[in-house]
Design brief:
single chain, globular, Tetracycline Repressor, domain 2
């Protein structure tokens, strides 16, 4: 897995930041290279120079979100002394929350971009990023199997999939819940919401 600590500066970083903001607001399909370079203060040819193509820039934006999260997941897994289901869920989820909070995008825009990455088609993860996800799965699935004796690898994959769905839906549709609840659900810190998610997913794993 390539490191997320590689420092990007200047035009390349400006293009990634501009593209991320525009893709979050409008989606991958409708944003033009000219819009991106205009926001970044760069010339149109810079996209080809730094990323090879518009699609290469999209992949770079996705990598800027996914790679730090995946690296931190593996780091936290390595540091776990006791691998309970709750500890594993925290190691899997908390890096994403940290990335949301530290992103140069606003929390709302980052979550919107995450929704685009997960739900927009025909966008598909590049093989490099898929390799990262496979590496994470290859480490977490056996750990969950040890924490939940009797569960097969297939069942663990499904339960991780469902758990991630709970978290992503919570992040992407929190505003809708506030409206539907008519004030009964208000704003709260992400750390509190994450604990709610882990409580729910832990119960599902241990059922």
């Amino acid at each position: 897995m390539r490191t997320a600590t590689e420092t990007m500066t200047g035009t390349k970083l400006a293009l990634i930041k501009a593209a991320a903001a525009l893709f979050a607001e409008k989606g991958f399909e409708v944003v033009s290279v000219r819009e991106i370079t205009g926001l970044a203060g760069a010339n149109v040819a810079s996209v080809t120079y730094h990323f090879g193509s518009r699609e290469g820039l999209i992949d770079a934006v996705v990598a800027s979100m996914a790679t730090p999260v995946n690296e931190e997941r593996l780091r936290r897994l390595d540091e776990l002394e006791v691998r309970t289901v709750r500890a594993l869920l925290a190691a899997f989820f908390e890096p994403l929350i940290s990335e949301v909070q530290s992103s140069p995008l606003s929390e709302k825009l980052f979550v919107k971009l995450m929704g685009r990455v997960v739900g927009d088609r025909p966008y598909e993860f590049p093989e490099e990023i898929m390799g990262e996800f496979r590496e994470v799965a290859g480490r977490f699935v056996p750990a969950f199997m040890e924490a939940c004796p009797g569960l097969s690898a297939e069942e663990v994959f499904w339960r991780i999939h469902f758990s991630f769905g709970v978290l992503s839906n919570t992040l992407m549709h929190g505003d809708l819940l506030k409206k539907i609840s008519d004030g009964k659900v208000g704003d709260e810190e992400l750390s509190i919401t994450l604990n709610r998610v882990i409580d729910f997913c832990e119960a599902g794993f241990l059922k």
